[in-house]
Write a structure and sequence with these properties.
Length: 433
């Protein structure tokens, strides 16, 4: 090594050491009139995202969603062009976010906050999510639907969340490149300004505790579920009341999420063919997580009937929507079983392993579900609760999942439901007697 190169190496090492020892800035102004130095604004939908390089930007060329439009504009709050506006239509996901060079957010986690000013212009058919990435393929978010809708037309509000809302044990915040994103669903128009992270701040908004969310009963309050979820619950209660008044038995109940719901929604002839003789009741709700099932169980959905068997499969949305740890999903499933036993102590519970998802065996979401499935046999006592894993019946020998039976790699089609019935029927026959 030459003297010149040696000197340059030493100076570089000293600079790195000095940077590491430098005190953490009390505030990171992620977007305060302009992006943080070296950062830039990105916008778009799930598949197509682009940088904002002018006063306005538009994304309307997603071949997967030809009717989706996402627009971003520089707008005004306290000064000219000191805020960002996001409007979206027919987009199940839209975003405007700040991308930066890697930021070490670890010093901010203990007492820090992320805060911003928000104005909701239109959100009657939409919802919001605030997101911070936590490393490679890691993101944490807070959902804001009902309060955000209530704020429509009421001008600017200042929102502040504890950074702990976006942190899970084991997350690595040492090199965050998306320190903030505002995501929208449905249709909407909002404006945001003064996005910042403070090392010491005071939150004025609350968030669910990730450690207990799966066992805390709650309706499904997503933007796309508000119009139908509670009416479906009321319809199920009315159906139970009708059966009770008519003396009609309900020998079989299915409890779950959209995978169960779709028996009734898209495959009703198969439902009638396979389960009609049991006077089966479908208690599957698209999008449900363990805590949503728990709320429904506590609000009458298995009261007034006496099923011989309750088939339950739940948890894939805890994985898909919250990237929840397996032990937390397991706790939610365990709590649901306890609630069924409380209301229906004589009903046998057939607990199904969560079905495979994703095309390949190494799909992250599938792997998380498999970790949950590995825990579930502990819940089976062979007397009241029985565990059955039929997942391999859906897979090719190499572990891949075909779109021929799971078109979106999550939900089975008619052929998939026939496999479900074929694989489950022998066990169900034993439990029915």
């Amino acid at each position: 090594m030459t003297l010149r190169h040696s000197t340059a190496f030493i100076l570089s090492a000293l600079a790195a050491t000095a940077a590491a020892a430098a005190p953490t800035a009390p505030t990171l102004p992620l977007y305060v009139a302009q992006p943080l130095a070296g950062a830039h604004v990105m916008f778009g939908d799930f598949d197509i995202q682009k940088p904002l390089t002018a006063d306005t930007g538009r994304m309307d060329n997603d071949p997967k969603l030809p009717s989706a439009v996402v627009e971003v504009r520089r707008t005004n709050k306290d000064a000219t062009a000191d805020a960002l506006g996001l409007s979206w239509k027919n987009a199940w996901f839209s975003t405007v976010r700040v991308d930066s060079a890697p930021l070490d957010l670890r010093p901010y986690l203990a007492k820090g906050t992320v805060s911003f000013d928000l104005k909701v212009n239109e959100l009657a058919k939409g919802g919001l999510t605030y997101r911070i990435d936590c490393g490679h393929d890691c993101e944490r978010k807070v959902v804001d639907v009902i309060p955000a809708r209530a704020a429509q037309g009421k001008g600017w509000r200042h929102l502040s969340y504890a950074l702990s809302c976006f942190y899970r044990k084991g997350d690595d915040f040492s090199a965050v490149t998306t320190p903030f994103a505002l995501d929208g669903t449905g249709d909407g128009d909002v404006e945001i300004a003064n996005i910042r992270i403070d090392r010491t701040g005071k939150a004025n908004e609350t968030c669910p505790d990730y450690r207990t969310a799966s066992v805390t009963p709650s309706p499904l309050n997503e933007s796309w579920s508000l119009d139908w979820w509670m009416p479906r619950h009321q319809e199920k209660l009315a159906e139970i009341a009708r059966r009770k008044a008519a003396g009609e038995p309900t020998d079989l109940v299915f409890i779950g999420d959209s995978i169960t719901h779709n028996w009734e929604q898209h495959n009703k002839p198969l439902w009638d063919e396979f389960w009609g003789k049991y006077h089966a009741l479908n208690l599957g709700y698209g999008g449900d997580r363990t805590e949503n099932v728990l709320w429904r169980l506590q609000h009458g959905e298995i009261d007034g009937i006496a099923p011989k068997v309750a088939v339950m499969m739940i948890g894939t949305n805890n994985t898909g929507q919250r990237h929840e740890a397996p032990e937390l999903i397991y706790a939610g499933i365990k709590r649901d079983i306890e609630e069924i036993r409380k209301h229906q102590p004589h009903t046998k519970i057939l607990l199904l392993a969560i079905f495979p998802r994703g095309a390949k065996p190494d799909d992250d979401l599938r792997l998380n579900n498999e970790k949950v499935n590995a825990l579930l046999p502990k819940l089976a006592d062979g007397k009241h609760v029985f565990f059955l894993d039929i997942g391999k019946a859906f897979l090719a020998p190499d572990g891949t999942l075909s779109k021929d039976i799971f078109p979106d790699l999550l939900h089975p089609n008619g052929d998939g439901y026939k496999i479900w019935q074929r694989e489950m029927q022998p066990t169900l026959d034993k439990l029915m007697h």
